[in-house]
Specification:
Layout lengths: L1 E2 L6 E2 L4 E6 L5 E2 L1 H13 L6 E6 L7 E7 L2 E8 L5 E2 L15 E2 L4 E6 L2 E2 L1 H21 L13 E2 L3 E5 L6 E2 L7 H24 L4
Parallel strand pairs: 3-5, 10-13, 11-14
Antiparallel strand pairs: 1-2, 1-13, 4-9, 6-7, 7-10, 8-12
Helix pairs in contact: 2-3
Length: 204
């Protein structure tokens, strides 16, 4: 698995992945790690856990999946748009080595039955990020900082859970079928999730 998760992020092996809802005033710090660990213990999860946190409503959860040529891809998304940003916008945290940030807003979890090479995993991250951005642009979401189209929020997180095959994926770009399917699923899931957000933000 490769992820930007607050708990055990990076390239790692894991038995479980969590995406939990927390208050909008929460931050991602060492204390967040402890909260996620405590949550996993309360669920009696055994083994390594990767964990994300979000202030977004779990009612925004959307799932898209497809099986093509024996390869299954599943995309899970939760979203909120309280802090949309255009890449390169002025950042609130002004230290290059800051260890604190806010909790995730658009959280994306991708699972596949195929075994992706490490290079393909990184390429899949690129495709998924482009797909999320495309969904935001299609929805005409603007950054309040620059008034340009948002390319994400300031606190997005992503995880890609690698499969065991037998299919092996070496490439995941826009010229190959895996990249096409992954991009479409992520874009559709994000679009559906943020559509729920806009329909319900006044009552959330």
């Amino acid at each position: 698995m490769i992820s930007s998760a607050v708990l055990n992020g990076g390239m790692t092996y894991a038995d479980h992945i969590l995406n939990i809802n927390v208050g909008s005033n929460s931050t991602c710090t060492a204390a967040a790690d402890e909260s996620l660990l405590q949550y996993s213990q309360n669920l009696n999860l055994n083994g390594a856990v990767v964990g994300m946190m979000t202030a977004a409503s779990m009612k925004s959860f959307r799932l898209e999946q497809a099986t093509v040529q024996g390869v299954e891809i599943v995309v899970l998304v939760t979203s909120g748009l309280s802090n949309p940003r255009h890449v390169g916008d002025h950042a609130e945290h002004r230290e290059m080595t800051t260890s604190t940030t806010d909790v995730g807003t658009i959280n994306t979890i991708i699972l596949t039955s195929a075994s992706l090479t490490e290079a393909a995993l990184v390429e899949a991250l690129m495709i998924a990020t482009e797909a999320k951005t495309a969904a935001l642009i299609d929805a005409e979401v603007l950054s309040p900082i620059s008034q340009q189209f948002a390319t994400g929020t300031g606190t997005d997180a992503i995880a890609i859970v690698n499969g065991h095959g037998p299919e092996t994926v070496h490439f995941c770009g826009k010229h190959v079928l895996f990249g096409e399917i992954l991009g479409r699923l992520v874009k559709d899931a994000v679009a559906a999730s943020i559509s729920w957000y806009f329909d319900n933000k006044k009552v959330c």
